[in-house]
Write a structure and sequence with these properties.
By secondary structure, this protein is of the alpha+beta class. The protein has three helices and eleven strands; from the N terminus they run ααββββββββαβββ. The chain has one domain: Lipocalin (Beta Barrel). A hairpin with a 3-residue loop joins strand 9 and strand 10.
Length: about 190
């Protein structure tokens, strides 16, 4: 190759920098979640308006542990510290699982149910249809779809059982942090 060609190719490379690879929407979603790591937030029940287990209780989420491939978010309902949402990411696909514990830290009989996104979703929204493990564990939940939304002001955790009236929505206020709660039941550092 002659010197003119080399100079021409170098000039082209400088003039037209390579186009960076597009970031998957699920990675943007993940990075947004991780930006809250260590913070705790309070929220409220949006649906159903009348719920005996969640209605009128203080709802708190704590982005307690974050790594490149796992985010653990304990979710407190009043004095009940039994729930942790576990999100994992592999090959730009996110999975949501629910870890339920008793006060002594032992696993609940119904534990680690959830689903895996069927695609990379959107930067502010990820869907998790019930997986086979969930269907076997909770047959009525075979048509469950969970979804999480996040932007700079709110985080929502949602559930719809397709074909039924079952719907659930919690809205967490991300505009102000609150004091970090104690560890959830069964938490291991």
């Amino acid at each position: 190759m002659n010197i003119r060609k080399i100079i021409f190719l170098l000039a082209l490379a400088i003039s037209f920098p390579s186009i960076s690879q597009e970031i998957a929407p699920s990675q943007t979603f993940w990075d947004t979640l991780k930006s809250h790591c260590g913070n705790a937030y309070e929220g409220s029940l949006a649906l159903p308006e009348e719920d005996k287990d969640f209605g009128g209780k203080k709802l708190v989420m704590h982005f307690r542990a974050c790594s490149d491939n796992e985010i653990r978010i304990p979710f407190y309902v009043g004095d009940d510290k039994s729930r942790t949402w576990i999100l994992t990411k592999m090959n730009d696909i996110i999975t949501l699982k629910h870890d339920h514990r008793h006060e002594d830290g032992t696993e609940d009989e119904i534990n680690f149910y959830g689903g895996t996104a069927s695609n990379v979703g959107k930067a502010d929204l990820q869907f998790f249809p019930a997986d086979t493990q969930t269907q076997k564990m909770i047959p009525a939940a075979a048509t469950n779809v969970w979804w999480i939304t996040i932007d700079d002001k709110i985080f929502t955790y949602n559930l719809k059982r397709i074909g039924t009236e079952r719907i659930f929505k919690v809205v967490m206020d991300l505009t102000k942090t609150i004091e970090k709660p104690e560890a959830p039941w069964g938490w291991k550092e």
